[in-house]
Write a structure and sequence with these properties.
about 180 residues, mainly beta, four-stranded antiparallel beta sheet, globular
Length: about 180
């Protein structure tokens, strides 16, 4: 599981790749733990992608507020919103141009494995129909950067940005609007 959250009804939403169904978000009943439904197509739907690679693409973060599910995917860096039944409301590219596809590496024994080249571990809805995300580009050599971005949901426009923010992770927003 990459991320999880709970809605106001006690249902649990988990970001985890289901390779068979190629779905990313799974909704469970809070009382019984039974799977209610899976939704949100994975990156590999309609593509010829090795399952090891797909698992690395399958990273992102989720939040639920009121009647919407917010999901940000690491690569391509997209933001999606759904209603609580899993119906897609909107989808837009965030920093897809800056995000990077997973890279193939070799271990000490010459075996191939995939590593993420960018990651998105945070999505926080904020008042005024906006959402905050963090996109990180891991350090390679002396490089690496990150972006803390604020997007307007009505049109997907990035309205504020901070490049290379100090090491920070946003986890949630409380009912008074305070960020943690």
């Amino acid at each position: 599981a990459q991320s999880l959250t709970v809605d106001d009804h006690g249902d649990i939403y988990v970001v985890a790749l289901n390779l068979v169904e190629q779905k990313m978000i799974h909704k469970y009943a809070g009382e019984s733990g039974e799977l209610i439904q899976s939704f949100c197509d994975s990156y590999a739907v309609s593509q010829d992608v090795d399952t090891r690679e797909e698992a690395v693409y399958a990273q992102g973060s989720i939040a639920v507020e009121k009647d919407r599910v917010f999901y940000v995917q690491s690569y391509p860096h997209k933001i999606r919103t759904f209603d609580l039944s899993g119906t897609l409301i909107q989808e837009f590219d965030a920093r897809t141009a800056e995000s990077q596809a997973p890279r193939t590496r070799l271990d000490d024994e010459g075996m191939q494995f995939q590593v993420p080249a960018s990651f998105s571990r945070t999505i926080v809805p904020v008042e005024g129909e906006q959402v905050l995300t963090i996109l990180g580009l891991p350090f390679e050599g002396d490089g690496g950067t990150g972006y803390l971005d604020l997007y307007r949901l009505s049109d997907g426009a990035r309205i504020a940005s901070l490049e290379d923010p100090p090491t920070v992770t946003l986890s949630c927003r409380d009912r008074r609007g305070r960020l943690y």
